[in-house]
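User: Second chain of the day. Same drill as before.
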Amino acid sequence: MSLFSVLGAIEIGLIFALVSLGVYITFRLLRFPDLTVDGSFATGGAVCAILIANNWNPFLSTLIATLAGGAAGFITGWLNVKLKIMDLLASILMMIALYSVNLRIMGGPNVPLINDATVFTVLQPPGVPDFWFRPILLLIIVIIAKFGTDWFFSTERGLAIRSTGSNTRMARAQGINTSAMVLLGVAISNGFVGLAGALYAQSQGGSDASMGIGTIVVGLAAVIVGEAILPSRRVAWATLAVIIGAVIYRFFIAAALNSNFIGLKAQDLNLITAVLVTIALIVPNLKRLLQGKRLPDAPKSL
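Assistant: Same format as last time:
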């Protein structure tokens, strides 16, 4: 792999580290199977791109895109807790609806950002190449998001969200408004995803209506790979694990696609993802087999 390929993989991996943080919040802390991610990622990119294309400040555009992603997650939670639609189905409905919403926002299938100012170009110091600066800036953003997440989930409200995910009945018996915690947790999760979509659009030079397809798979892959490498029940270690998992995942994707002797091409991306996730899932079972322990039964559902 060339230096440009490595830096590119790190850059995209850091962007999807924000997605993996959001997926970790819903799937692990809240126990909420949320597929809104595929839509809210594109929503973040669409909102940010259309605002920047209309000469809005890129920082304000990124903030609004983050809030738009959070709003999408809030609606998913509202469908679940207020209208009593099953969590998985509610997220699927929102994901489908967001595809049309994103087309409406952009006024077409895509919005290019060719010579427009972005957070990367505005902050880039003179003389520093963009392929070096973008990963550094993204690393700073991810570190802030990681420690912000760790802090929030150690507060009373964050612990209430974790309690809601662990045991809803017990949390309700302790006086926790579990409906509000679901709404807040899913909104925060998709806020991270919306932020990732906004940064991805600025990094790649535009947004596209289909840019969110498969995002949930990437987020889950990062979580699973990270947990296989650094298993821990503590939030601080778990958030670090999913960030590492996102970067490693993208690195392996780039390595596989750039390996001439393997013969893989861009259309094999989903196949590579499936293989990596499968390996990450069977690693804990291999450890159990080596220790002579009985394997647990496969889960029946989410």
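The first strand starts at residue 110 and ends at 112.

User: Great, on to the next one.
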